[in-house]
Design a protein that fits this description.
Structural class: alpha+beta
Number of helices: 25
Helix content: 40-55%
Low-confidence stretches: 417-432
Mean pLDDT: 85
Length: 554
């Protein structure tokens, strides 16, 4: 058991605003912070976090407690599990009443990083690459850069330091191929970039090949310590500057961040090989900074900037986008000494909303009246995700840029009737509605499940959200309906194949039971047809009750 003294010492270190704020977007409200409650559906924020009392309380559902209770409820953990998770996040060593468990928090990641750093200083190829990119030795030290050697060397080092290989697998620095019964290092002949949690513990690595491997960059896999959708590279280094300047620069690469810091832009961070997600938003809320997205001007960079801008503008963030054209990136500009130019660029980014509308306009041939009509419809769909004031303001902006002399702003009609009814539908969902939304979110977040789902379900089988289901199958993640589902943290995606199969069995049993009832009461088909369908649906229901998923037949 964890000793009570140890628990009290951990509690003294925890900050309830920091803990809750890493899961939920908090907004300042006087001396406290408020947010929509994560434990029940509500239209107005009744969830309050008190830094003075170090507690949270929801005046809607009554949920409340301290930091440990929040983590228990949010992550569905036991009391000891929540304590151990928080201790790991805060680099705190717990003590146990059973002396066998009284060992300090593993130093595997820190020791491995020290070893990588030492290897880098003796590897001329890696050091030459970094010097060519313009990186100072002081930056190598500041960001803890290292070098990962051949796989067997890393395995041998860990074993020589008495680290358990199973533990290394849990941290994601070692992998295991069950079929070949082989253990291997995940970072091989790469420059390494340690990735820290917001509280200062190393939780993963990024790696850049210097031997021409097809994967130029790799990151640690998802582990219980490392969630790339919640972390930003170098946030631990940049956070004080972010708070002081009330501004954060988000780039696409590790080297961009390092070079920007060298040039004095010490509020720069980077996403970890993934697009900006809703899980990043709580971290971005801290200090309410202006957000500057600094992305490459290639097709992939512009698409990522468009997606991020839609998310951030719909979530009420202030800031804009800087797109680097001509194959340049921030690191290149710093190396070329164009620091003043960079400063001017960051000072005047294109606001998120204008960027989104201009990007949408660029996707259409506005000389074609039908294309112009489609563009206007897509622009209106986006504007509906914004506040009424911003909708009215940017309605004129959209109209004026629709080619030629533009169109009359009066033709850009924005009504929130559909949006309101959709919100009401979600608020007043039956269990079945919630299940359908969950299915849509599942195939959006876990596309590997699509084939299994399509084997047994097609859009018309959904009673309430067949349109959203169809859009998700077409991967139209920019559609407002899907953006609303992705942003809504109350809609849970199914995580495992077993969980998906279980839910599909329940849904299909109810679906075919409804179809059977329709056939029994149908008066517009012959007796032979009715008998055929009754046998067919009863057979499907019997299979489903035995746990066998039945294939969909048109």
């Amino acid at each position: 058991m964890i000793s009570q003294d140890s628990i009290e010492a951990l509690k003294a270190r925890l900050d309830v605003v920091d803990v809750v704020g890493s899961y939920v977007e908090l907004k300042k409200a006087g001396a406290n912070f408020k947010a929509p409650c994560p434990f029940h559906d509500e239209k107005t924020a009744s969830f309050v976090v008190s830094p003075a009392k170090q507690i949270y309380h929801c005046f809607g559902c009554g949920a409340g407690g301290d930091s440990i209770k929040f983590v228990m409820e949010y992550e569905k953990l036991t009391y000891p599990e929540a304590i151990e998770k928080l201790a790991g996040s805060y680099n705190f060593t717990l003590t146990y009443t059973d002396n066998k468990q009284n060992k300090p928090r593993s130093q595997l990641m820190e020791k491995l990083n020290e070893w990588y750093q030492n290897l880098l200083s003796h590897n001329q190829t890696a050091m030459s690459y970094l010097r060519e990119r313009g990186i100072y030795e002081s930056s190598i030290e500041k960001f803890g850069l290292g070098y990962a050697p051949k796989s067997h060397e890393t395995i041998n080092y860990l074993q020589s330091q008495q680290f358990n290989i199973r533990e290394a697998i849990e941290f994601g620095v070692v992998g295991h191929d069950a079929e070949r019964r082989q253990t291997f290092a995940r970072f091989i002949e790469r420059i390494t970039f340690p990735i820290y949690s917001a509280n200062g513990s190393i939780v993963g690595f990024g790696g850049r090949t210097i031997t021409g491997h097809s994967a130029k960059y790799v990151n640690s896999p998802e582990t219980k310590y490392f969630n790339k959708s919640r972390l930003l590279y170098a946030y631990n280094i940049a956070k004080q500057a972010i708070y002081k300047k009330a501004e954060i620069i988000i780039t696409e690469g590790y080297l961009d961040v390092i070079m920007l810091h060298q040039a004095g832009f010490d509020n720069a961070v980077a996403t970890l090989g993934t697009a900006l997600t809703t899980e990043h938003l709580p971290m971005l809320r801290k200090g309410t900074p202006r957000i500057i997205m600094a992305y490459d001007g290639d097709k992939a960079g512009r698409a990522a900037a468009l997606k991020a801008s839609k998310l951030l503008s719909a979530s009420g963030f202030n800031g804009g986008v800087v797109v680097f054209e001509g194959g340049l990136d921030p690191a290149d500009m710093v190396k070329e000494g164009r620091v003043n130019e960079l400063s001017n660029i960051f000072h005047s980014p294109k606001p998120f909303i204008e960027f989104v509308l201009d990007e949408l306009l660029s996707l259409y041939d506005l000389r074609d009246p039908k294309a112009k009509e489609s563009c206007m419809a897509e622009g209106i769909s986006y504007l509906k995700t914004l506040s009424p004031i911003l909708q009215e303001e940017y309605k004129t902006y959209l109209a004026s840029r629709l080619g030629g002399l533009g169109v009359s702003p009066s033709l850009v009609k924005i009504t929130n009737q559909t949006n309101s009814s959709q919100k009401e539908l979600v608020q007043k969902n039956t269990h079945r509605d919630v299940w359908e939304l969950s299915l849509v979110k599942t195939i959006l977040e876990r596309p590997e499940f699509i084939e299994s789902v399509l084997d047994v379900i097609e859009p018309s089988m959904l009673q309430f959200h067949s349109r959203e289901f169809s859009l998700a199958l077409e991967n139209k993640t920019d559609a407002p309906e899907l953006m609303a589902i992705l942003v809504d943290e109350k809609i849970r995606a199914l995580q495992t194949a077993e969980e998906l199969n279980s839910e599909l069995l329940t849904f299909l049993t109810r679906f075919y039971d409804r179809e059977l009832k329709k056939i029994n009461t149908a008066s517009n088909i012959s007796f032979e047809q009715k008998a055929f369908y009754i046998r067919k649906y009863r057979g499907k229901i019997a299979q489903l009750k035995r746990g066998v998923l039945v294939r969909f037949e048109a």
